[in-house]
């Protein structure tokens, strides 16, 4: 798996799904891509859509913190996933997030730390 860092905006609110005993938070991130041509930035006509997953407590924090339109920075491992029946199988790239944060170049946030579990018991 390759490690990727992307920036973009959430296309929808995070979606929390249950996959067996695992809770997965799914995100769709729209990244406006482009390139420099003759010293000027030229945006691509169609933005790139990334599918991102965050698991367990990490995913719970993402779902509680982020909403549609929020500017984010995401780092994670990208892999190909498949779904559907054998005759109608589809494939897509998914980033399994290691870190997700608000893009402070485009937003401000208030950080609320999670309470640490009491280890004196």
Features:
single chain, 121 residues, mainly beta, OB fold (Dihydrolipoamide Acetyltransferase, E2P), 5-stranded mixed β-barrel, two-stranded antiparallel sheet, 1 helix, 55% strand, globular
Describe how the helices and strands are arranged.
Layout: E1 2-10, E2 15-19, E3 22-31, E4 34-37, E5 40-43, E6 48-55, H1 56-65, E7 71-83, E8 90-102
Parallel strand pairs: 6-8
Antiparallel strand pairs: 1-3, 1-7, 2-3, 3-6, 4-5, 7-8
Task: Describe the structure concisely for a colleague.
The chain has 121 residues and is mainly beta. The protein contains one helix and eight strands; from the N terminus they run ββββββαββ.
**What is the number of domains?**
1
Silhouette: globular
Radius of gyration: 17 Å
N-end to C-end Cα span: 40 Å
Strand content: over 45%
User: What's the rounded overall pLDDT mean?
Assistant: 91
What do we call the CATH topology?
OB fold (Dihydrolipoamide Acetyltransferase, E2P)
- Assign a percent range to the helix content: under 10%
Work out the helix count: 1
Strand arrangement within the widest β-sheet reads 1-3-6-8-7
The CATH architecture classification is: Beta Barrel
